[in-house]
Design a protein that fits this description.
The structure is a homodimer.
Chain A (H helix, E strand, L loop, with lengths): L6 H4 L8 E3 L1 H11 L4 E2 H8 L3 H13 L3 E6 L9 E5 L5 E7 L3 E8 L4 E8 L6 H19 L6 E8 L3 E2 L4 E2 L13 H8 L4 E6 H12 L8 E6 L3 E7 L2 E3 L29 H5 L1 H13 L4 H8 L7 H9 L3 H25 L3 E5 L6 H15 L2 H4 L3 E4 L5 H13 L2 E3 L8
Parallel strand pairs in A: 1-17, 5-8, 8-11, 12-15, 15-16
Antiparallel strand pairs in A: 2-4, 3-4, 5-6, 6-7, 9-10, 12-13, 13-14
Helix pairs in contact in A: 2-3, 3-4, 5-6, 7-15, 9-10, 9-12, 11-12, 12-13
Amino acid sequence: MPVPETTEARQAPPLHAPILINGAEAEVIRALRRQAKISRTEISNITGWSKAKTSLEIRSLVTKGYLVEVGEGSSQGGRKPGLLQINDQLGYLIGLDIGATSIDVVLANVGGKVLQRRTAVADVRQPPEEFLSRCSELILEMVKAQGCRIDQVLGIGVGLPGPVDFTHGVLIAPPLMPGWENFLIRDFFQRTFSAAYVVVDNDVNIMAIGEQRAGDGMQVDHFIFIKIGTGIGSGIVSNGKMHRGSIGCAGDIGHICVDKQGPICRCGNTGCLEAMAAGPAITERAVQAARNGSSPLLRHMMENNGGILRPDDVNAACREGDQAALEIIRASGQMIGDVLAGLVNFFNPSHIFIGGGITNFGNHLLVSIRRAVLQRSLPLATTHLSINFSRMGPEAGITGAVALAREYLFVMEDRPFSIV
Amino acid sequence: MPVPETTEARQAPPLHAPILINGAEAEVIRALRRQAKISRTEISNITGWSKAKTSLEIRSLVTKGYLVEVGEGSSQGGRKPGLLQINDQLGYLIGLDIGATSIDVVLANVGGKVLQRRTAVADVRQPPEEFLSRCSELILEMVKAQGCRIDQVLGIGVGLPGPVDFTHGVLIAPPLMPGWENFLIRDFFQRTFSAAYVVVDNDVNIMAIGEQRAGDGMQVDHFIFIKIGTGIGSGIVSNGKMHRGSIGCAGDIGHICVDKQGPICRCGNTGCLEAMAAGPAITERAVQAARNGSSPLLRHMMENNGGILRPDDVNAACREGDQAALEIIRASGQMIGDVLAGLVNFFNPSHIFIGGGITNFGNHLLVSIRRAVLQRSLPLATTHLSINFSRMGPEAGITGAVALAREYLFVMEDRPFSIV
């Protein structure tokens, strides 16, 4: 099997971080990651510093404009403590969620509050320069609408539908968008947004980050976020942190084998989960059911639809009680559940969140997935396991892209790659 | 499928930690985890503290007897810095590796240096009181031989061959040893060793910890340690930390499905990896080959062996060029590799270490596993993947048990459950 050439990727420039801080400052910022606002006493408790040292470090951060004092916290018996938070006026962040056929992009303040939003139809199979130029235009539009300066854009978080080498911020062997391989996305954006650092991740990871920061994944230490649509992928959180794996391609569950005798997948193997259970497999089975007469309803839909069927048609047929459509959805859920059962044994998550286009399929799909997991996983691993559709819908990705940009806002001067 | 009752486990007492430290002290100790000895300057660099503050904290830790000053480090231009390390004289730690038929136990100093060692044959299917009393006897023997006091035993790390609820230190639904379910192992040991805290983990996790602390897993952020013997299990390291999952049963890969049409497993499902590829499945296939005439050598061995075959016989036959034995080993490797292929896609480790009794099978097994993984995993995930037998052999478990005990030696007073 050919091994992709990654030399170029290895030579990609290191992450450019906008705000370098020292070790002591990093401790304050780290304490602030757990909560939006924090008192001096809390910082002192977390760091173990004296009051004097705490005041000194805070004063330095306030003087530099990184922190501001806001409102008043609840009293703990003494005088009401002033609260500190990261200075929203520091600048702006961009969250960019790139889909196969869409661009979803927001401008937020460094606190993560979304201030501007744009969406556009676009084809990711375009050359990356063209595609990303369109993204830059949308960002510039938002900068103008917000009335801020380009150099106030401090960070750009990008989600892309393909395998990302996270350290170097490039796509590696992306099946949907071969022209993007090793294209230096960071460099591209930094030509226009020179004050910004750029963090690139895959689309499912940013959904998982979104779920963790603003969804039901908050406070959850171990979860798997699964996106089911044209493909199938997952984002993994272990011990409260994104697990990206050694190369950054963890979570690629679409090519786990379901049936060695199954159809050939675009990856070259047979019977991959994606080839058997994702959107295209569902419509293919629906077309068969329409043709072989097992579903007159699907045939009718196909005839009225110029000879094609989409996943939504299968869903609609199922809602109208069509047995063949129901069976197709159940079979898909069963296969996804079989693969998840193994991952549940291996990973022992407390939550599985399901997102992506297929979530429209609703309860029939969810019940089939749950049933398969319960049947094949060990009881100990499923006792407290929750499997549900993500309630964030399409917001998961864009929320995660902004959160990803926020994570790298402050970076320690002597450890430029580690998140504070 | 019945859900095990875990109410009792939930009521198990919290971890009893012997040395409680404050936040600032914890920072020094944490810095010392990365290296055995450290200079004041290094502590200052890592913590971001002033020289004065660093000296103050170190003096406090030295006065309390937790740290000692040793030798001299290499000069960085200025005067040669005195080095600090954790005080070996603080007390002793016990590492206890319990197998299905064996006890392997060591007494080490808090620096992790093994000073005494005992091994014994024992049957884990005994009632836990009896079995653990034998373990206590062995520990007391070592304490006596070392000439130390019982109250100098500060920590006991225990590895057990079953699913462990790590937080509560009890076994949950252990198939090999049903009498142990929810037995309070910590309480048992603390009746004799009242100064010791007790950390209980499963046997494969302690092997993974051993590999991480003293084997080829040092400096490796993401790896899977697989134990193949009578059963099949794994220990997982993500972002440099043990991944135990939400209940603590992560890594249980023995019951991932290989073939739905396969034989019934002791878990009640069909075609589990363990039922198809572990030691007993190998000998069962060897017995078939002996009986159906496809291997005269295995038949001969079986006849000379009172009608039974052990995995080692299959290995010996393979070494003598027996084709049937070779095929049996290859088939086992192929199935293990097929499951690993999925886990490699999901987890993207840089290393897989293989341990347990089956490692005697050598290259034929290893090559089959590697081949299956390379065939079914995505190229991006296997480009830099190393799959090898652990070079630590049986030392992995006992080394990990001591390391586990060491991890909980210092615990922050306000966060009793988190490792410093």
